[in-house]
Amino acid sequence: MGLENPKAWVIIAIAAIVLFGYKKLPDMSRSVGRSLRIFKTEMQGLNEDEATRKAAETPATPPPPVVPPTPAPQNAAPVVQPEAVTETPPVVPPVVTPTAPSEPIADTNGPKPHINTSAS
Fold first, then answer.
1. What is the DSSP string of 31-71?
2. How far is 71 from 74, CA to CA, in rounded Å?
3. For the whole model, what pTM was predicted?
4. What CA–CA distance (Å, rounded) separates 8 from 104?
5. Helix (H) / strand (E) containing 13
6. What is the block-wise mean pLDDT of the chain (120 residues), using blocks of 10 residues?
7. Domain boundaries, the chain
8. Measured CA distances, 66 to 9, 22, 63 (Å)
9. CB distance 3 to 9 below 8 Å
């Protein structure tokens, strides 16, 4: 039993009427129609936007024609190109991170006095 069979469509129609009621079916079909119409206009808008984008990507004027360079005269002096000036990078001192000493530092001020804080 496929959807080509008219009995299937009758059963689907009866089930829709039972589930949604005969008063709500026209409203539902109207809202589905509106949704499909909005979807169709949005799809057309996407196609127009794509055509506009493609038209904007293509260059309006063709690039200028490439003119081949004219050969230099045979008896002219050779052209000497200046040497490229290379800049030396600035010298940056290395970053030194402090580390903890491996041996404790000796106290050179002498022993600390003991203060008795207990009350007697």
1. HHHHHHHHHHHHHHHHHHHHHHHHHHHS-SSPPPPPPPPPP
2. 9
3. 0.34
4. 94
5. helix 6-20
6. 81 87 84 92 85 73 72 64 73 76 63 66
7. 22-58
8. 70, 75, 9
9. yes
